[in-house]
Structures are given as structure tokens and as C-alpha cells.
Batch of 3 targets.
Target 1
Amino acid sequence: MRMRIDVVTIFPEFFGVLDVSLLGKARQAELVETHVHDLRDYAAFRADGTADVHRTVDDAPFGGGAGMVMKPDVWGKALDDVLKPTGVLVVPSPAGVPFTQALAQELSAAPQLVFACGRYEGIDARVAEHYANDGYRVVEASLGDYVLNGGEVAAVAMIEAITRLIPGFMGNAQSIVEESHSDGLLEYPSYTRPASWRGLDVPDVLLSGHHAKIAEWRHEQQLSRTRERRPDLLPPE
Ligand code: ADE
């Protein structure tokens, strides 16, 4: 079954990037279809039914504070229109759960993913609550411990991580099994010709043709790299 991805954003032109790169391949293979929607198209009328020529999508936060909050009524109209009964709502947010390879793997099986890209200080919290109450799976996920200006860059990264896991997408399934994070460790270092470059030699074991030794060396490299760079990924000693 083909996955459907919808993106709701105030910057639809940003998603032209989906036409290139890996995702372009997935679309050519008809494994995924993408639809990008301009949030402002749902802001032509205010909650009271009067016309809003400015197509306002944000307002000041209750309780005070910096920045603006995206309006729940506008998001509600957009998501009512776009979300299918089996859709999963994904809200990129620096306050979300970590977006991991395991989460990408899970989401790659969804019939529809709807990415709600917030700007400013985020989307009124009742939007996620409402769709969760309605029975939808709602995933607020963060790309990492830093703050982007909005969800768009995060959504593109998530879409790339998810679509390459759709069965049939990658030419070489083994390269997915061996890559960083699929076994909880960082990937081992890779080398190609020439065997000597600028005084740096490829480790001898890789030229030995001894497959068991190569596998053992690579596993050791995974462990030492992970210990050094990402000790948080290892079980406590
Ligand atoms: N929006 C802003 N910052 C973000 C982050 N780190 N991850 C996901 N969405 C975001």
C-alpha cells in the first residue's frame, strides 16, 4: 500500500526540496505520495465567521510571554480537512519526544502521516489534545536538543528518515541493517580506494579478505566509537 504524506505549513514553497534527493526516488517508485497545504488557506474566515483579509494564523499567548501562538481554530479546519481516519499526526517540536530510528521505523508503516509545522512559539496545545482525544495517534517529536525557527526543517528530516525505511525503497536492504542506530550502535568507519591516501592507510584487516576478522574489527569499531561519541547509547556498566 502506498504511504500518503501531508504537510501543513505557512511555507509551502519550502517543501520543493521533497522533489529531489532520496524522496524523489520513492515517489517515482510510487511508494509514497506527498501533498503540501498552505495553512493560510484555512484562515480566510475567523472563528466567528467574519472574513479575515490578513488570513491571520497566530495570536498573543494567554498568560503573557514572548512570541505568538498559532491559533487552534485555523489548525482545526486544516487538520479536519487533511487527516484521514487512519492518519498519524506528527508535530515537530523542540518539546517533543526524541525522533529516533525506532520511531522512524514505526512511522514508516503508517498509511498516512500528517506533519503539522508550527512556527513562532508553537501551536495552541489544545490542537494535539483534541486529535488525541478523537482517537488519532499524535506524535510530538523533536529532532534534537536545539531550537529551529519552526517545524519545516524538522519535518523534511523526519520525512527523509521515514520514507527510506518503507519496504521496497532502498535498493540494498542490508545497508539499512548495517547503518548507524539500527542496532543501537554507531556505524563503523568505511573506506574505499586508494588504499593509501595522503599518508593515511586503510586498516590492514579490511584488505585481508578474512570475513570473520573484518566483522569482528567492525564490531569493535562500533563499540569504541559509540563509547567515545555517544556513551548515552550504551547500557550502564
Ligand atoms: N521545531 C523547532 N525546533 C525543533 C526541533 N529541535 N525539533 C523538531 N521541531 C522543532
Target 2
Amino acid sequence: HERDLIARREKLLGPAYRLFYANPLHFVRGEGAWLYDAAGRPYLDAYNNVACVGHSHPHVVAALSRQAAVLNTHTRYLHETILDYAEKLLATFPRELGQVMFTCTGSEANDLALRVAKMHTGGTGVIVTDWAYHGVTDAVSQLSPSLGSGVLRGGYVRTVPAPDSYRSVGQDVAEAFARDVAAAIDDMRAKGIKPAALLVDTILSSDGVFSDPPGFFAKAAEVIRAAGGIFIADEVQPGFGRTGGQMWGFERHGLVPDLVTVGKPMGNGHPMAAMIAKPEILKAFGRASRYFNTFGGNPVSCAVGMAVLEVIESEGLVDHTQKVGAYLREKIGRLSDKHAIIGDVRGAGLFIGVELVRDRKNLEPATTETARLINDMRERGVLISGTGPHANILKIRPPLVFSKENADLFVSTLDDALA
Ligand code: PMP
């Protein structure tokens, strides 16, 4: 049956989509941290940072169906849901970040942030990290070097190495990052390009999950601002409590971004995203543009988003994530005594990166071994993925409702697979 589905996909959807695994999974149901395939086999989901409050959470499902049964419409009419949700969402941000514009995907939110940054600064130059991913629109894919050669990068983009706490032990990564950003600005200016923004994913998900030491973005933010540009935090991956102990990844860096983009977990699977802004940054864009978004901020999305925030609050998921994340990281760390391939265990909350190396001295990336391990974990019923320019870093991002028991099962399965 799976083979039939794959053949139909290829015929109907064309050649551009890739599925996970050589032997793709076919899910029919999800609940909490578990997904169930067509044969009824359960899989522990440690991959999915979309279903943040758990797959098909009843409170979210109820809010969605309640609103869908009453009204969903174009967003150029007045409706209260958008205001109630905007208030609730903005209350999770520092006071300076006082306005929000809704979109449907993270890509669109970043695309909008790019436009706003250009209008506000009068510049066009954008700095991103070496292996960043920020989305798929034509403009934003140019800011996503991890998409590789399928993208023609515009001349206004500069890349800088991510602050790598593992490969630069003993160095001041904050200082090095700020220096690289300053050099990128000099290079732009030498070619007549005015800087508009430094855009970073605050946990550097696709660069390899770099979280330490907290605060390493603050100096670079000063550098870009001194050059007339703004600091944009892409919270599509780390946002909504995932880093544990706080709602937003940038909070670990002791700074307030000028713009923030959010998405993925915002609707627990319902497509919704947003850009949060300091009001003064939105002024020039507001005067000049005739922006509208047919679906962004529609009544159903706002009801869903509200329900997600309610569950994060009522189930205490921000604290839970910090506790269970620390527990899981510690237990994975202990596996490194036994398995020499584990070079580094890092991350924050329930966003964990495990870097696999062939040799702890020269740190040669264990790329093929990582792919084998991810596949082996899948055969054992646990879902994870890989990241980083050498695809040798396990990316572990379970739903925030991941329990201690789930963490124990995860670690024992990882232990067996590594063996
Ligand atoms: N930014 C980051 C950091 C992401 O990881 C992603 C999606 N993986 C996006 C933006 C784009 O979001 P979307 O797929 O919803 O367009």
C-alpha cells in the first residue's frame, strides 16, 4: 500500500518533494507525543516541533471546530478574535515589541520582515549564518544557504559562521560572531550595499543547534544597529517555550530584537505564523505598503493560536520543558561515556543537538553513521532527524508534553541503536 501511495505522489505532486526515510512512514493518527502508522504501530515523536502541546490536543481541536462552525472569513473585516489573540500573544513579549502582523507560514513572516527591514532602514544588505534556513519564498530562500545550489543568492546577502561552542572551545564566540558580522558589513559597504538586517534563528537549528553560552547574540546585535540595520530574531523553531524556562529563544540572549518571526508550533499544526515588531520599525512600511494577507489572522487561526497559548499556560509547559529537557540532556550526556561517537550534547529545553564524530580529537563529522542511526531509531519506533552542514548532528525536538517516561524510553532506544 505504501508503495502505491509513493507512486501516486510522484505522479501527482511532481519531483520536488522529498519524504523522510528510504522507507517512508505513513501516519494515520497522533496523540500526545505519539504517532500511529497505518498498521497501528506507535512511534515516539522526538522530531516534531509543530505539535508543541501534543498531537491533536483536545483543547486545541475543540477551539478549532467551535470557531470553524461559527465564522471564518477574509481578514479585511473587523473581527474580535484577532484582537483577543494579538493581546494574548503580545503579552508574552517584552513591552517594546508591541505590534503583530499575521501570516500563514514562517517563510511569509520572514519575507515580510525582510520587506519591513528594507523600508525602515533604506538598506538592502542582509546577514545570515552559513547554514541558515529561513524559508522558501524566492526572497527568503536567498537567505537560506542550507538550501544549497538550487537557490541563486542575491548579491545583497552575506553569510557568517554560526557561533560554534564545540569547535571553538576556549574562544569567545560572542566576540568572534560580532567580529564576523562587522566584517560582513564592511564587505557590503565596499560594494555600495547599505545594511538592512542581521537575521538569525536564535537556537541556530540548521547550523547545528548552538545554544551556549547564552548571550552570544547581544554584541552582534549592537554591531548591526550601529551600522543602521536591525536585528531580526527568527523564532520559528525555538519559540513558544521550546528552549525551556522562557517563551522565546532571544530571551536567553539578554536582548530585545527589532522584529521577531514566529510560526510552526504557533497553531500546533494549523498553518499560522506572525511577525512581531517594535511599532517604530513598522511606520515606514505602514505608510508605503498596501499589505494584506487573505488568511493570516483569520478567526479560526486566532482561536487555535489562543487555545495553544492557553494549554502552554494551564499545563505549565514552559517550566516542564526546562525540567524534562535538562533531564533528557543529562541522560544523553551520560551515554557519551559509553559511546565514543558522541562528541557533544547541547541545546536548551527540549531542543537538543547531539553531534556525532568519528574521532574526538580531530572531530571528523560522522555523517554516514548519523544517517544510519536516524534510520535505525525509526526502525525501533523513535523519530528524530539530523542537522548541520555535515548532517552529523541529531536534532531532538519532541512535543513539549514529552514526559520523563518518554525521555527514558528515548534514551534507552538511543543507547541500543548506538550499540
Ligand atoms: N525559519 C526557520 C528557522 C525554519 O526552521 C522554518 C521552517 N523549517 C521557516 C523559517 C519557514 O517556515 P515555513 O516552513 O512555515 O514557511
Target 3
Amino acid sequence: MKFFIDTANVEDIKKANDMGVICGVTTNPSLIAKEGRDFNQVIAEIASIVDGPISGEVKATTVDAEGMIAEGREIAKIHPNMVVKIPMTVEGLKATKVLASEGIKVNVTLIFSANQALLAARAGAAYVSPFLGRLDDISSPGIDLIRTIADIFEIHGIESEIISASVRNPIHVTDCALAGADIATVPYSVIEQMTKHPLTDQGIEKFQADYRAVFGE
Ligand code: E4P
């Protein structure tokens, strides 16, 4: 399983990129709004940091296929690594079909059922993004959806990649890897949590103490 970082914060993206663990970035309208900066400028900066797929979503207020197609074409022009993120609606599927036919990669987002994932894949999505944490939030096990989509794509030889989205903690990450997700898109805070183990910290302290006791600094 590969990792993308799920943020529009350039500093967090730099930190994760320097660690060598991410190969792509996902953003959404809420993450862009949180930064309070111009969309094109933020996306161009991100693309100059990470050499991999960067998902930029059409405006949250654009709901018709024609509007999504026009915006998608503009997003794709920002950088060759751009992926256009489109919400899972009938209009979104129509936009996916057109953009994919033009060679533009599409990430269909806000997926909460296996059927939505199947439709998105058949419309030509390069990526489908099922939201794990938001399903957990309503007491429906999100990981079951990831596993089901992975099984269905395997059975039918579907090549769209599964991006586990709405990943909220390190247990989610391990579960996604076991469930067969191709990618987990993870906030920087979770990547940082994943690096930690109390026995690692204790081990470093003991090695330092033992070394200093004999050799000093
Ligand atoms: C990424 O593609 C999604 O937009 C994101 O993971 C949503 O996460 P959240 O449910 O924690 O907002």
C-alpha cells in the first residue's frame, strides 16, 4: 500500500515528503479553505514539492457536469501530475467519463458504497476514494467497505486504484493495508503517530545511556 498525504498545508507536505514516505497528495474544498489561500497557487506549490499524483477538487458549488468538466480541464492544466477530484453523483460520473476520455486522471470522491465505487471505476476513474472514518462516525464499519471494494476490483480485474480516505488514526492505516487498499491518504498528524512506539524511545534512551557510560559524549 502506498501513502498520499491528505492536506493542503505546504509545510506538512514538505515534512512528509522529506521523510520519503509519500508519493502523492489529496486535497478537498475544506482543506483548501482551511489554508485560506488561492487554489491555483497552493496546488502549484504542492506540485513543485511532490513528484506524484496531486488531487485537486472541483469547486464545492459546481454541481453540473458541464461546470465540472470545464473546471477539471483548468485543474489538469496546472501541472502534468494533476488529478481532478470529482464528487460521486450522476453529474460527477458524466464529468468523469468526459475528462477520462481526454486522458485526464479523475479521483471520484465521497464514496460510501461498493456500488458507487463500481460505477466510478466503470465511468473511467483512475482512483476511487471510499471514506473510512466518516462511515465509522455513523457506526458503520468503514473498513468493511474498503475490503469489499478491494475484493470486487480483484474479482473483475478493475484497474482503478482504491484510495482509502478519511483515515483518522494508525489502526485505520494497518486495517487499510490488510483490506487491500492501493493507497491510504493520511493527514500529517497520523503519519507522525505512525512513526512512534514507546519501546523505540526507550531503546534509544538506553543505547545513549550505555554508550555515554563508557565513551562519554
Ligand atoms: C480525502 O480525499 C478526503 O477528502 C479526506 O480524507 C476526508 O477526510 P475527513 O473525513 O477526515 O474530513
